[in-house]
Amino acid sequence: MDAASALADLTEISSQVDAAVLLDEGGAVLASTLEDDARSERIARTAVELLHAADERLGREGRSILRLEASLREGSVFAVREAGRSIVATTSPSPTSGLVLYDLKACLRSLEQADEPAKPEPRRKAEKQETADA
Amino acid sequence: MRRPLTLLVFVAGPLLYLSRRRGAQRERVHLAYDDGSAVTLARGAPESERLLELARQAL
């Protein structure tokens, strides 16, 4: 599964997500639900700054921030990072935070699973050829 | 004409003020760490202001 498909699945299952952007480790946009590239870039840049500011102010030794939720009157911003990738999503005001976070994590995990090399399928035993001796 | 206007000012005004105040009180930042711990910062906490400002830019 590629980044665009993962986001398409996310918007299909999560009606609360208005916009979502997937970022790589360096903060570059991997995929976005928005057609406006400039807005995707702006959200990505803001997400990177947001996580950086949170790390600076509230990061603690030996612990790193995995999830961030900023609730505002205008809406909410969620950022989740896992295995080198991050996803940021915006929602309308008062979303069901637990569900949104679950869906964002599921989106990142689906990408992670796609990265893993496919396991070889177990070999089937060759079917015995039945001879019609009878 | 004046009565409905007075009523509007004395009823709708406070309601609007209270709903805006409640909305402002709901503004917060919630952070979850990899060790399972979490922190919630309400608006007004020194660390939360910058984070809320950045989040506002994303919306």
Query: How large is the count of helical segments of chain A?
Result: 3
Helix count, DSSP H or I runs of 4 or more residues of chain B: 2
Report mean pLDDT of chain B, rounded to a whole number: 82
Q: What share of residues of chain B is helical?
A: 55-70%
Query: How much strand of chain B?
Result: 15-25%
Which secondary-structure class do the elements of chain B indicate? alpha+beta
Order of helices and strands of chain A: HEEHEEEH
Distance between the termini of chain A: 51 Å
What is the topology, as strand order, of the major beta sheet of chain A? 2-1-5-4-3
Q: How does the major sheet of chain A shape up?
A: 5 strands, antiparallel
Low-confidence stretches of chain B: none
Helix content bin of chain A: 25-40%
What would CATH call the architecture of chain A?
2-Layer Sandwich
Strand content of chain A: 15-25%
Q: In angstroms, what is the radius of gyration of chain A?
A: 21 Å
User: Can you say what the CATH homologous superfamily of chain A is?
Assistant: Dynein light chain 2a, cytoplasmic
Write out key terms for the chains shown:
heterodimer, A: Beta-Lactamase, 5 strands, globular, B: 59 residues, alpha+beta, 2 helices, 64% helix, elongated
What does this structure look like?
The complex is a heterodimer of chains A (134) and B (59). In chain A, strands 2-1-5-4-3 form a five-stranded antiparallel sheet, with helices on both faces. Chain A is α+β, with helices and mostly antiparallel strands. The longest helix of chain A is centred in the middle third of the chain and has 22 residues, at 37-58. The termini of chain A are far apart. Chain A is 39% helix and 24% strand. Chain A has helices spanning 3-13, 37-58, 97-115, and strands at 17-23, 29-32, 65-71, 76-82, 85-91. In chain A, helix 1 (3-13) runs antiparallel to helix 3 (97-115). Chain A has a single domain, classed as 2-Layer Sandwich (Beta-Lactamase). By secondary structure, chain B is α+β, with helices and mostly antiparallel strands. Chain B has one domain (2-58). Helix content of chain B is 64%, strand content 19%. Chain B starts with a helix and ends with a helix. Chains A and B meet through helix 2 and strand 3 of A and helix 1, strand 1 and helix 2 of B. Strand 3 of chain A pairs antiparallel with strand 1 of chain B, so a sheet runs across the interface.
